[in-house]
Amino acid sequence: MAILLLADHDGQTVSDATARTISAATAIGGDIHVLVAGASADAAAASAAALSGVSKVLLADDAGLANNLAEPLAALLVSLAGSYDVLIAPATSVGKNVMPRVAALLDVAQISEITEVVSADTFKRPIYAGNAIQTVQSGDAKKVITVRTSTFAPAAGGGSAPVEPVSAAADPGLSTFVGDALSSSDRPELTSAKIIVSGGRALGSAEKFQEVILPLADKLGAAVGASRAAVDAGYAPNDWQVGQTGKVVAPQLYIACGISGAIQHLAGMKDSTVIVAINKDEDAPIFQVADYGLVGDIFTILPELEKAL
Amino acid sequence: MKILVTVKRVVDYNVKIRVKPDGSGVELANVKMSMNPFDEISVEEALRLKEAGKATEVVVVSIGPAKAEETLRTGLAMGADRAILVETDAAVEPLAVAKILKGVVDAEQPSLVIVGKQAIDDDSNQTGQMLSALLGWSQGTFASKVELGADKATVTREVDGGLQTIDIKLPAVVTTDLRLNEPRYASLPNIMKAKKKPLDKKTPADFGVDITPRLTVLKTEEPAGRKAGIKVGSVAELVDKLKNEAGVL
Ligand SMILES: Cc1cc2nc3c(=O)[nH]c(=O)nc-3n(C[C@H](O)[C@H](O)[C@H](O)COP(=O)(O)OP(=O)(O)OC[C@H]3O[C@@H](n4cnc5c(N)ncnc54)[C@H](O)[C@@H]3O)c2cc1C
Ligand SMILES: Nc1ncnc2c1ncn2[C@@H]1O[C@H](COP(=O)(O)O)[C@@H](O)[C@H]1O
């Protein structure tokens, strides 16, 4: 069995999500080749080569691959697919964008966001916002898979796989990159953070969100998350949304502040090791999943908590 | 320009679903069904483009059981011009849905297809990307803003690190994210009017699509549950528990 794993990277290093996907690929079993596609991505390729379990890194270095546009990236994956039984990627925004395109071009189903490898052709995946878990068996000769990385541990370092150049496929020229507006922050990344402080609609404004949530997060060295309501209202940027349609996280400690606990939000955080909920409504559904609940007003509790740490 | 919008009938987002005790699936009898929320956003976007004079016709399409007609009527009541129901009682996987949609696109020749990012039942997040691939078109997924020009669309996309803006050549497939717009409600008079709007019925066979599933569902089970813990009385108690009981601080 040969597995082609599409790495997620920033040009410098492959992401934590990539390292976790290697663990999923290892569970499937077989030779794991990691594809690093981008422009000037040698450093990222070198970081992939150092992950244990990787037998080869393929580096596709091409200006047309700089921005992860779906069409040229899918064309590249399809051009390489012939030698592989499994094509796998983390369910990041890049993986979710490109892998279904690859699957359709190969005329196979995609198995989205697997949380467990049962055997080489059988996987578990959540449906209905994680309220049911399906076990599915694939009958396709080639398997296209995305991985919900929060349920797999990152592969260790210490590897030394060879890096081999591959050429980009012809760019169909259907889309062009215009610009990015990426949030920059020194805080840990949401999907790999050990602690997350998350704020909901109760914060009431972007100013209050910053005033009350951020100092507590910084004191804890935590990442910051938000409910959809907080993001929709503009209190927090879109990439902080945790939930069914946002990011799925499983930190050691998740502190939900002024979040009611809608099923769509729970879908993104209920696998956290310890959940703390702070809410003034003692009947808020979030308390049904919280290990420690504190009933009260976040505007008095959170500053007090920050001081007590 | 014509816009095609896909709408799926799914369990309403407010319903807490139950897994059947025998593991054969999810209990769907007597459960409230609605239009997939992302598809409401798609319909709204198409209607706004029409109202802005950038589109001339909005066609809604659904693949599903006879009852999916209700979902299409909701789209018509919101303001879509006509509907196409591709009727089947089988569960259709995203790849087969995309193949059927390609058949509809070949027949209808829209310049833009707006698809939801994700169906909230199967949580696949595949159909739009697959349709785009089968058509050989460009794709603008997870859109929070769409500006339609004559031969291209500028799409702002929600990505892991923030936002990305791309230009995509038309014809194109766009998939909608939550922040694209706030869908309107259908008014009572429009609900009445929608009953008379044209609705065509087709079958997957009309498009020559084999809908045999590629994946076999071996089992459907409840997730490992989480029990409610305890309520603490003060910040001091919380910090103590986190340090000394949970050991996470
Ligand atoms: C298709 C779809 C996808 C969705 N995806 C997501 C998703 O990915 N993530 C997500 O989060 N949601 C998602 N949602 C939205 C979800 O259904 C809820 O609407 C949302 O999670 C509610 O956010 P909230 O808890 O912040 O707000 P609310 O439900 O309004 O809760 C606010 C809470 O704050 C408490 N409160 C108010 N003031 C105070 C105070 N001063 N001190 C303490 N507590 C206070 C209230 O008691 C209440 O419990 C989705 C919905 C749909 C339809
Ligand atoms: N049976 C269907 N009928 C109409 N549209 C569908 C159907 N299945 C999926 N779609 C569309 O594809 C989107 C994504 O679905 P999925 O890929 O299943 O998550 C949905 O929001 C719909 O717009």
TrEMBL record, chain A:
SMART domains to which the protein is assigned, alphabetical = ETF
Cofactor(s) in the UniProt record? FAD
Write out the entry's keywords from A to Z: Electron transport, FAD, Flavoprotein, Nitrogen fixation, Transport
Asked whether the keyword Transport is assigned, the reply is yes
**Keyword Transport appears in the UniProt entry:** yes
Cofactor details (free text): Binds 1 FAD per dimer.
Enumerate the InterPro entries for this protein.
DHS-like_NAD/FAD-binding_dom, ETF_a/b_N, ETF_a/FixB, ETF_alpha_N, ETF_asu_C, ETF_asu_C_CS, Rossmann-like_a/b/a_fold
Name the residues that bind FAD.
201, 227-228, 241-245, 258-265, 279, 297-298
Domain Electron transfer flavoprotein alpha/beta-subunit N-terminal, first and last residues per copy: 3-181
Molecular functions (GO terms): electron transfer activity; flavin adenine dinucleotide binding
Q: Highest taxon of the source?
A: Bacteria
Which parts of the chain span the membrane according to its record?
none
- BP-aspect Gene Ontology terms: fatty acid beta-oxidation using acyl-CoA dehydrogenase
Which family, according to UniProt?
Belongs to the ETF alpha-subunit/FixB family.
Quaternary form?
Answer: FixA and FixB form a heterodimer.
What is this protein's function? May play a role in a redox process involved in nitrogen fixation.
> What is the protein's given name?
Electron transfer flavoprotein subunit alpha
Automatic annotation (TrEMBL), chain B:
According to the entry, every stretch annotated as the Electron transfer flavoprotein alpha/beta-subunit N-terminal domain falls at 23-211
What keywords are assigned to this protein? Electron transport, Nitrogen fixation, Transport
Q: Which CDD domains match?
A: ETF_beta
Could you say which cofactors this protein requires?
Answer: AMP
Gene3D superfamilies per the UniProt record, alphabetical: HUPs
Q: What are the recorded Gene Ontology BP terms?
A: carboxylic acid catabolic process
**InterPro entries recorded for this chain?**
ET-Flavoprotein_bsu_CS, ETF_a/b_N, ETF_b, ETF_beta_N, Rossmann-like_a/b/a_fold
Example GO molecular function:
electron transfer activity
In terms of superkingdom, the source organism counts as Bacteria
The record's family statement is:
Belongs to the ETF beta-subunit/FixA family.
Q: Which PANTHER family match?
A: ELECTRON TRANSFER FLAVOPROTEIN BETA-SUBUNIT, ELECTRON TRANSFER FLAVOPROTEIN SUBUNIT BETA
Q: How does it assemble?
A: Heterodimer of an alpha and a beta subunit. FixA and FixB form a heterodimer.
Q: What does this protein do?
A: May play a role in a redox process involved in nitrogen fixation.
Q: State the protein's name.
A: Electron transfer flavoprotein subunit beta
Query: Where does this protein come from, organism-wise?
Result: Ferranicluibacter rubi
